[in-house]
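idk why but the lab printer keeps eating my pages so im just putting this in chat instead. protein + magnesium ion:
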Amino acid sequence: MGLLSLGTPLPWDQAKKYADHVRTQGIEQLIHIYNNTKGKHGDVLLWGDEVEYMVITLDDADKKARLSLRQAEILADLAKLEEQGLLKEADVTFHPEYGRYMLESTPATPYTGNPVDLLNVQRNMAKRRQIAKEHLRDNEIPLTITSSPILGTPGQFTEPYYPPTGAASRSLFLPDEIINPHARFPTLTANIRMRRGSKVAVNVPIFFDKNVPKPFIDPTINFDRDLYPEDANAKDGAALPDHIYMDSMGFGMGCSCLQLTFQATNINEARNLYDQLATISPIMLALTAASPAYRGYLSDQDTRWNVIAGSVDDRTEVERGLKPPPADLKTDNSDFVIPKSRYDSIDSYLAINDPVLRGAESHYNDSKLVVNNKVLARLHEAGFDELLAKHFAHLFIRDPIVIFKELLEQDNEKESDHFENIQSTNWQTMRFKPPPPGSSIGWRVEFRPMEVQFTDFENASFSIFIVLVTRVILSYNLNFYLPISKVDENMKVAHHRNAILEEKFWFRTNVFREGAEHSANGDTAGNANGESNGSASDAAANHGNYEQLTINEIINGSSTGFPGLIPIVRQYLQNVNVDTETLCTLEKHLSLVSKRASGELKSNATWIREFVRSHPAYKFDSVVSPEIHYDLIKAIEKLTNGEGWNTDSASILKGF
Ligand code: ADP
Ligand code: MG
Ligand code: MG
Ligand code: MG
Ligand code: MG
Ligand code: MG
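predcted complex ->
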């Protein structure tokens, strides 16, 4: 199980003094890893998912559903199974998460590239949920919902109850007791607030249902509280009218998601997958939309991403461009202003060997990249190529937020904690993961945008779909490149209410490269160095070839050009050796993805919104009351248990 290192985290006024130390040593650690593994080749596909749960306590007598804060006890119980080897035997494992009502689970060993392994995905997810359930109380359930609709509402929303106070977050809404008590998490929370110079401020537009007053001034905000100096933030303008205001890390890091990690053959294949999947990220964020409600209200958006981005935004006012830098401010960064939160979409492409990217690098990497100049110079000196050096020099503009005193001095040839300190607190849509020192693990990429779905079937479907997308990217050497600025635009649009059906996204339409064989043989992906096929000339030729498409056109194909991701995947499956049973199961999963994109099946977000709006107690004021919330949770529990719908592709019920 993912154990957290124990130690003494430094408060911000001390931690900041070691920021340069951590960056400098972290880069030396990266250079050692790179030198030892840059030539590593021939690693096979291994992959795995991460599913995050919220544990909910049902009070059937009182008709209340609350967030259970028993993570530590539940994990302690599961650790006993682990000690007996039972989790390994079941091929599951559990990890702690930020929210004290959350659990994370992954398979104990990664899946392989064998198509038959895809049949295990749903089974493994179901087993994890079952084992989690067996370690809960009778009135507790593990649900995979992306955002809790009641987190931070007035009254009791946790079990047990705590008043909304606490020195770490100083939130008007969340008690510090919702934070995983391991020292790392309250320190993260407090240090982000300290570094930023105020509480974080997230404002999600309210859904203007017919009885929401205009302007909407949230009556549940205690603007006059005077417990901490930061209490004034809300009335000083942090809480915007017409928005749902959230002031604490827990609102974002307390969301659940579905992530996938893939091992590549070598570093170049990992760089290729990183780039190609980055362009797919906003599409999958929109397609998996599952989070329409926050802090007791329906919002006017369907996905969580900007809530998390805002909830860990530790940039100062100068870095956010709100204030000119003081005359004596020193920084190693190429600019004082940092355009994005450390939790955001990626900022630059990596695949230097790709002729399309190489032929028009500034066209695709078209967004200003703030880098740490000292780190950049050191990486150049160590022989990193420009794109790789810039990638890490960009991640290293950030400060380490949590530093454990006991980990300050490390053996840079054998350890990587300083590197990981910065790397793993850059929470972007994609993460480029170098091999851990001293392990046999290869270069990996993590796909991070997706929202978690109610059922294991859906989570398996989206996981399998992305696995197959990686296979067609490599086998057909597909080219999804778009200027980064267009990917950023797509990320914004992906939040919009009902974006699946009502919005268009920039997407490349000629994804097949000129002169590339469209063979389904995995070996055509590149030569032994992982270099892509295709000539530099198609870079210039392909510039203008992106259009705004609907999600349906991107997933299922457009009559005017783009064949669609699912048809490409289906063609691939016909060309590889897959037995009929496997094919049949895969088709059920692809069918779910396809029907979500076409609108034949509703997204989780739409389903939640419609459930709330059709509840007899709903007053069309966008309020998700405790009573509505209880019924919503009960209804989601039923779906989770397979009631009310059927995973058979022929009979997936219309309502879901
Ligand atoms: P993190 O929290 O850093 O993203 P986790 O350990 O929670 O990482 O999840 C990593 C996922 O990667 C798991 O699903 C695991 O099965 C999978 N995995 C483990 N080893 C490999 C590997 N060598 N290549 C690809 N995926 C792997
Ligand atoms: Mg982790
Ligand atoms: Mg994890
Ligand atoms: Mg997690
Ligand atoms: Mg308290
Ligand atoms: Mg992860």
